[in-house]
Amino acid sequence: MKTIAKLANRRDDHGVHEGYLLLADISGYTAFLTGTELEHAHEIIHELTTLIRERLAPPMRFVKLEGDAVFCYADTETFREGERLVELIEACYFEFSNRLLDMTRATTCRCVACAAIGSLGLKFVSHYGSYVVERDDRREDLAGPDVILAHRLLKNTISNDDGPQAYAFFTERCQQHLPPSFDLPSHIEMYESFGETKGGVHNLDPVLSTMRGERRSYVSAADADFETTIDVPVPSAVAWQYAAAKTRARSRRPWKMTVRASLSDSPPTFRATAAESSASRRARARSSSERPSSWFI
Fold first, then answer.
1. What pLDDT digit, counting tens, does each position of 30-68 carry?
2. What element of type H or E holds 199?
3. Residue 242: burial class (beta carbons within 10 Å; 0-12, 13-18, 19+)
């Protein structure tokens, strides 16, 4: 009876669909997990994979978490303009990199896992092809040769010989749905049963630098309507790290932050000054999508 009930709840959509297959894979995962404390390592990976999933789906549909990789897909109608797919990947990498930075700055834990957060990275593989949707209760999975190929592409040689560590690889079939002006360096991989697979490599590090530069803002003392100063008897590097962790990871407020040394004090005293503009506070109040990490505070 249990077998019959299970079969009744399973419905395979045997119709063949076409669309985008996307895998976001955390690089450095194996070395990170096997060489660090499991408890903190698991919490770190869980937070990062959750972030990736939330940034990609929607508009994509989440299929499953495969250890260190998030598997999503979208039909052709979801990205009528392929540029939206590129923008989605770039935004996801931007959020991922910022979360890594926040974790690194905010943690006070001295364990190996927390110290190795910065060794993690992110890469994407995007393929356009055919697939069949299999549904079991509320879960769904994809099947088909193109699904297998997309997963095979995670094991590639793109980063060899000083290649980019953070990248999005778009297969040739996927590139056909991207804007013609989106020209990428070509790359070829060979896989058994699939032969030669061509595509283009989108280096994400320059994108990250550009996006961070565009979003950087400076609040001068004259523009600030709130300013506070405290004196702490610690080295300037420690004062900066503590102040940055408090303002970035917990409140995520766009503060002006300066650290000054007073050489006349004995022992030396370092002064940290923080200021926030009213415009920044209004913008922060309107945005509640970013949640501070809490496990490492």
1. 878 776 677 788 888 899 999 999 999 999 999 999 988
2. strand 195-203
3. middle
Provide the pLDDT for residue 218. Answer: 62
* Average of per-residue pLDDT across 143-156: 96
Instruction: Give Cα 68 distance to the centre of its chain.
Output: 12
Task: Compute CA distances 264 → 257, 261, 267, whole Å.
Answer: 22, 9, 9
Which tokens hold the place of 175?
Answer: 């590139």
Say how far residue 80 (Cα) sits from the centre of its chain.
24
**What are the beta bridge partners of residue 64?**
71
d(CA 52, CA 95): 8
Contact 211, 89 (CB under 8 A): no
pLDDT mean over 106-114:
79
Contact 71, 63 (CB under 8 A): yes
